[in-house]
Write a structure and sequence with these properties.
456 residues, alpha/beta, six-stranded antiparallel sheet, 26 strands, 32% strand
Length: 456
Amino acid sequence: MNIYGLILAGGSGSRLWPLSRELYPKQFLNINSDKSLLQSAFERLATFIKPENIICITNAKHLANVKMQLGETTVLAEPVAKNTAPAIVCAAKFITQRDSSDPIILVVPSDSLIKNIELFQSTVEKGEKLAQEGYIVTFGVKPNYPETGYGYINVTPDFKVKEFVEKPDSATAQKYLDKGTYFWNTGMFMFKVSVLLNEIERFAPEIAEIAKSIDFDKSNEIPCAEFEKMPSISIDYAVMEKSDKIALVKFESDWNDLGSWQSFYDTNEKDINGNVLVGSVLDKDSKNSLVYSSSKLVAAIGLEDTIIVETEDAVLACKKYCSQDIKHIYETLRAQNNDAHCVHKTIYCPWGYYTEIDRGKGFLVKRIHVNAGQRLSLQSHNHRHEHWVVVSGIAKVLLDGQEHSLEPGKSIDIPVKAPHSLQNPSKKDIEIIEVQRGDILSEDDIIRYEDIYGRI
């Protein structure tokens, strides 16, 4: 197909807390696969779309992680979060400046779980035919139970869209299921660029007007000054609920948006007692429960319809039927400025990752893992002194213009304000222990001079 793929990768995944965090949300996680959901979304599209025609749009705070996972893929970064309508319009503008043939764009979320690629492709082919006829196509899944975590789409007998509705309560979801004309909203869309932009002109003229001033001829960057003026609105509210050119294609493949721990449980293989046990778990007599361990041994006895999720710094425990309410815990943590909503103790970076081991007044200890062939930026700090001890591998350290090669057991001091870089030119990963000392121990205290990942 001569179409473009657009992957939306700006979500927070709050209902999969504590595994999903604001700065490392679910689309970056390896769930049910050795690939992340984002990588799987790209590979799924690449089975029938040219890789150079696949574009990802994300929030600027996720840009480095997207580039790390998708390599040379074109990535657009929103300076601020403005929901899906401004993101899709900017991407459409970017594509029109690359391709004047009025191409079709397939928009997909980055966090869907789809296993049957053949049926997915055949569904998209049906959508392409309608898009060629001038429709904005949405894809819906026929519900088989009253799910309260999805939006719904109500259609006429010939599959023209009558209305989009928000996530319902249980009683309303059951009514939708009984009526038979409602579908789960997958968040996937397909349209000709000209059709979408015309409908944006009709129903969201403020977005259309601002988009005219955005020019991608010289750069892939979305200008902050213009983008900040955009209203924060979803494509559903901006266009889909107002246009008379909306048609639904029944989604024929398997689909799950992994929007909650309940859906994680539903999509995983169960043991003879109906349990999903992941990681280091010791269980006795539990039934129909999910126990997820990421680092510690979790022992469970006699659980029933329960979810337990353990991470390095947080433990979640709830009944399965409460899994949609986890977002309230996430929002409470954010309101309290508790970092547990935002970051893990292990932080993934383009060059590898680091884990906070210990913290106290005036000191911070990290374990730093640098992947083969990668390097940290050339940087300095105004408020902290660092001491590095190599645990494994051969570390190349640049310090004040001098090069040092450190074997396991060797160490080096990094004074305050000294330009330095940690590099791994070998084919084996390296690990070091870093001890920071100072009055201010913050990731904001980094002045970058050179960076191969474009973070200057």
